[in-house]
């Protein structure tokens, strides 16, 4: 049987980024918080925190945090029915994994009003859309946005739409590498920009053009930095259409192969036993995402 006082101490240390602030939030001494963490570690038989600044959860610590989060969501539903049970009135916190391009474009507008209305705080984990589901599989997050339709056990998935990417480069880059015009077979011979080692969007794009094999590329794990590097002419890249409309209008970036975009489906995954709040957030995302995402057509 879980001792939720111990789990609450763990959640407070991680959420407040330290033992001192956690003690203040829970109305305890710092020594009491430390003792609760030590007792929790003794009961699970392994560390739940890495003692760095700020403290970080271990793998088992993340799983315990996710459990605490699901319990809180269910308690929130009960408090809605019985308001007298809500003694603290603290905001709810959701840990969600999503891709950097969604975070840089449509996500904030889609959830801003909802978070304010529901007194909700977000703990966002940035992952490539092709691997975000591993966070749910590991029990680290309550929900995620990823490109995979199939949910993990105990979760549901719903299609939000697709993010459209276009192959872009600066005018100077095009003049330097494609003086006689852009050809698909030449793309693999010119420097590209890739978000990270888990990003295979460029590979898929080149394969769709009939170009196989490897290609030269820079790695840039920043959505905003990716745009800056493309504008500076370091390489060509697949960029969300939502993010560069102004640059396209001003001619700062130019589409390499017009009318050949590539769409990436985005599915919202969430735990089945996540309570009413996750259900409401799901409804909000399904309604609002249509403003920014394009309909997904299965290849």
Automatic annotation (TrEMBL):
<protein>
    <recommendedName>
        <fullName>HTH-type transcriptional regulator ArgP</fullName>
    </recommendedName>
</protein>
<dbReference type="InterPro" id="IPR017685">
    <property type="entry name" value="ArgP"/>
</dbReference>
<comment type="subunit">
    <text>Homodimer.</text>
</comment>
<dbReference type="InterPro" id="IPR050176">
    <property type="entry name" value="LTTR"/>
</dbReference>
<keyword id="KW-0805">Transcription regulation</keyword>
<comment type="similarity">
    <text>Belongs to the LysR transcriptional regulatory family.</text>
</comment>
<dbReference type="InterPro" id="IPR005119">
    <property type="entry name" value="LysR_subst-bd"/>
</dbReference>
<keyword id="KW-0804">Transcription</keyword>
<dbReference type="InterPro" id="IPR000847">
    <property type="entry name" value="LysR_HTH_N"/>
</dbReference>
<dbReference type="InterPro" id="IPR023490">
    <property type="entry name" value="ArgP_gammaproteobact"/>
</dbReference>
<dbReference type="InterPro" id="IPR036390">
    <property type="entry name" value="WH_DNA-bd_sf"/>
</dbReference>
<comment type="function">
    <text>Controls the transcription of genes involved in arginine and lysine metabolism.</text>
</comment>
<dbReference type="Pfam" id="PF03466">
    <property type="entry name" value="LysR_substrate"/>
</dbReference>
<dbReference type="GO" id="GO:0003677">
    <property type="term" value="F:DNA binding"/>
</dbReference>
<feature type="domain" description="HTH lysR-type">
    <location>
        <begin position="2"/>
        <end position="58"/>
    </location>
</feature>
<keyword id="KW-0238">DNA-binding</keyword>
<dbReference type="Pfam" id="PF00126">
    <property type="entry name" value="HTH_1"/>
</dbReference>
<dbReference type="InterPro" id="IPR036388">
    <property type="entry name" value="WH-like_DNA-bd_sf"/>
</dbReference>
<dbReference type="GO" id="GO:0003700">
    <property type="term" value="F:DNA-binding transcription factor activity"/>
</dbReference>
């Amino acid at each position: 049987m879980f001792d939720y006082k111990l789990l609450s101490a763990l959640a407070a240390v991680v959420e407040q980024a330290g033992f001192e602030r956690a003690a203040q939030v829970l109305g305890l001494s710092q020594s009491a918080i430390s003792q609760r963490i030590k007792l929790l570690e003794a009961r699970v038989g392994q560390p739940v925190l890495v003692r760095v600044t700020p403290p970080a959860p271990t793998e088992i610590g993340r799983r315990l945090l996710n459990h605490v989060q699901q319990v809180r969501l269910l308690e929130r539903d009960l408090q809605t029915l019985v308001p007298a049970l809500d003694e603290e009135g603290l905001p709810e916190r959701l840990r969600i994994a999503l891709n950097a391009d969604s975070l840089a474009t449509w996500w904030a507008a889609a959830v801003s009003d909802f978070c304010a209305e529901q007194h909700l705080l977000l703990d966002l984990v940035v992952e490539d859309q092709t691997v975000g589901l591993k966070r749910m599989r590991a029990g680290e997050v309550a929900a995620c946005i990823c490109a995979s339709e199939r949910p993990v056990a105990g979760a549901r998935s719903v299609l939000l739409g697709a993010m459209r990417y276009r192959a872009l480069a600066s005018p100077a880059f095009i003049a330097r590498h494609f003086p006689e015009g852009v050809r698909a077979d030449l793309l693999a011979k010119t420097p590209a920009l890739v978000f990270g080692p888990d990003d295979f969007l460029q590979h898929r794009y080149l394969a769709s053009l009939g170009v196989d094999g490897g290609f030269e590329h820079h790695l840039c794990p920043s959505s905003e930095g990716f745009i800056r590097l493309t504008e500076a002419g370091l390489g060509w890249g697949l960029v969300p259409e939502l993010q560069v409309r102004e640059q396209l209008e001003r001619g700062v970036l130019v589409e390499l192969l017009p009318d050949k975009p590539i769409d990436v489906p985005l599915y919202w995954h969430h735990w089945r036993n996540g309570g009413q709040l996750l259900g409401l957030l799901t409804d909000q995302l399904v309604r609002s995402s249509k403003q920014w995402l394009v309909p997904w057509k299965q290849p």
